[in-house]
Amino acid sequence: MDKKILTFYKQFGMYTNPGLYQDYLKNDLPDDIKEIGLLMRKSLIHRSSLDEGNTGTNTDLRFGDMTKVPWWRQTEDDLLQTAPAMLAELFRRDKRGLALQRKAENKLILTCRYTAILVASILKSKGIPCRVRSGHADYFGAGKVSADHWINQYWNAKEKRWVTIDVDGSLSMKNENIDPYEVKEGEFDFPAQTWLAIRKKKINPKRFYNAGGVYGAVTVLWALFYDLHSLMNSEIYYKHLPRMSRLPNFRKLTESELKKIDHLAKLMLDPDTNFNELQRIYSTNKEYRLLTGGLL
Fold this sequence. Notes:
Elements: H1 3-8, H2 22-28, H3 33-41, E1 44-45, H4 47-52, H5 83-93, E2 108-109, H6 112-125, E3 130-137, E4 146-156, E5 161-165, H7 191-199, E6 208-209, H8 217-231, E7 241-242, H9 247-250, H10 255-268, H11 275-284, H12 286-289, E8 291-292
Parallel strand pairs: 1-2, 4-6
Antiparallel strand pairs: 3-4, 4-5, 7-8
């Protein structure tokens, strides 16, 4: 692996930079990946877990007693978009910060992107190359549909390879054959491969959806742009997307524009080999780089 790439993924971006919490993440948290993951899962509640209450995967209260969470508590995705924002609120609610025995009412209500950002922030603080990845996963249900999802890859220096992990899904996978700390090739639907398969009509785009209830190829394109930005250490928020991928505009994309996206997807099939070209595109292509959403 090119040392330049590993150095790049040791660096913090706007969302993963822990600021004044870096020493805490580096020195006070365990070094073992699974121990870090368990700390995360015991400190955060996914909005779907909150909605389901003490049923489903939370029948044994592994995520805490949802009846103890204040009735007015909603997802905090819009409020805590960066690592230091999440950490500051964790400490405000419980002075121990990340803790295994954390009361349900003191946990943060956040989805997979936020878990992945915190994981990346922790590992980068410890000097471990790490990156956030976006795509879809079908191992939360019967495998018939694939939901939008965010995970991590960290560099295993001893084995000299990227290891794909899913901390957010580590306690809620319905497919017991998948190890969340060693997600194998083909078990997670990376958007580049999915997009190209849809374009070649090899898979049904209706199999893919996002939490907003949108199905089809457009959700894969959104994941492709999330993944591109994440590969560049900029883990953009759900609502921030290139204008061309917004639903009305997506339906109007020309074949020429679609072929340009195909080219991007082909490069992203192997982001390490094509790292320099992806950096060039990210630095020069306004259509992919400039985002809309919120006040943007």
